[in-house]
């Protein structure tokens, strides 16, 4: 266990990680475009879910997902993916389907991954979903967390789904902390979601309220600015001439504003094109101070969606199972980098691959 956090020992818990969030069906046109597609690959994805699934599938920890789905064939396909992802689905709330989706439906996410100068394009079709209609008392949070949970992960995507989901997140986070569960939150600012419910002003009000229940706060520079109002001075959106000093200053300000934050972590991604990034990460903890992951210049990317979530799951794994914040941030950055080499939103890589890259290994053929 890292010296940055006191995480409950696995032996006295039912789950290592529980995620609260939406799980959508991702429709992926492969190397073509959505607008001219004739067939799609399907995957599942959701910012919060991807983290628990990564902890299960790559890192071998025990996880559950709390979400809601309309009970139709699409919802059951998402369930099939979640079962393949290895998460316990007993906390999925199944809402009767009305036959045409007038009152309740499941989220669809059409995303093409871009190539070179053509950026990735995402179109989500996720209004009026079962998960957006969740209420705080839909789940008996005290019953769940009294079973013993080491880690809860949720975030700013779930909080932005409707007027009610921020209250659901707050109920879950408060209950988790009452039972000694570490709470992580990825700000994941999505302007398209906040637009219908009060825009950036509401995003800040909601995220500032929820931040008071967070132990481990995660986001990139845009997230910290749009969601919490902390500026990273002097960087442009492509992070050219990256100066990590500006990130350190922002993190110090955030740590003073929220004494409950034990760890703050941000990815450093300079987007050179759809298929190339500069990639790194910086983390801070109250106990250990700053740690920076190895900076990877000009990283090749196959599918960037979910890279930040895989960073979060590698970081969480490190904070639960490894010794130092430096190891945790290296595992996060390595897992994020590797997850972006495969299609879909979720990880397809193994713990030995993450450990090797985090330790400075190369991509030489293994046979
Ligand atoms: O939940 C969303 O908004 C998505 O776009 C799904 C993706 O899996 C997720 O955001 C990746 O971080």
Automatic annotation (TrEMBL):
Keyword Nucleotide-binding set for record: no
Keywords recorded for this protein, A-Z: Kinase, Transferase
InterPro entries the UniProt entry points to: Carb_kinase_PfkB-like (IPR052700), PfkB_dom (IPR011611), Ribokinase-like (IPR029056)
Molecular-function annotations in GO: kinase activity
Q: Report which superkingdom the organism of origin falls in.
A: Bacteria
Q: Where is the Carbohydrate kinase PfkB domain?
A: 18-348
Q: Keyword RNA-binding, does the record have it?
A: no
UniProt cross-references to Pfam families, sorted A to Z: PfkB
What is stated as this protein's family in its record? Belongs to the carbohydrate kinase PfkB family.
PANTHER family in the cross-refs = 2-DEHYDRO-3-DEOXYGLUCONOKINASE_2-DEHYDRO-3-DEOXYGALACTONOKINASE (PTHR43320:SF2), SUGAR KINASE (PTHR43320)
State what protein this is by name.
2-dehydro-3-deoxygluconokinase
